[in-house]
Amino acid sequence: MKKERTLSEAYLHKKPENWNCAQSLLKGFQKECSITDSEIEQFRAWGGGRAEGGVCGALHAASHLLGGNSRKDLEESFVQEFGTFQCRELKRNKIACVDCVRLADKLVEQGMNRRQDKKQTDVDQ
Predict the structure, then answer these.
(1) How far is CA 36 from CA 31, 33, 40, in A?
(2) 8, 10, 12, 15 alpha-carbon torsion, rounded to 10°
(3) pLDDT for 20-76, tens place per residue?
(4) Entry pTM
(5) How many whole angstroms separate alpha carbon 94 and alpha carbon 97?
(6) Domain edges within the chain
(7) Helical H runs in 34-96?
(8) How far is CA 46 from CA 51, 61, 62, 97, in A?
């Protein structure tokens, strides 16, 4: 039986590493996406609203994991759920970082499942 993946939110601010929102998302998908500890450390620079354009670090990391044209869809999902994807606005609206990480984790998992389903459909044809 396949072992369940630890959800990204479990890593948020976990000691001693004290991972931020962007890092915790990468850590949650580390095995599935073959992410190195060094890559996770590089994402320390993008937590706390420091991602390009002030976007949520969890959204930034999700976009990195899904690649391609995923950013717009991720932003739309954040707006639908929280009213914004800007870190400053999320904090102003009292949206907890853990909620952003939880949503980003769900969106990445859904995106990966869609890719897997598409690959399977292509193989079946």
Answers:
(1) 9, 9, 7
(2) -140
(3) 999 999 999 999 999 999 999 999 999 999 999 999 999 999 999 999 889 999 999
(4) 0.90
(5) 9
(6) 8-124
(7) 37-42, 57-66, 70-82, 87-92
(8) 4, 8, 12, 13
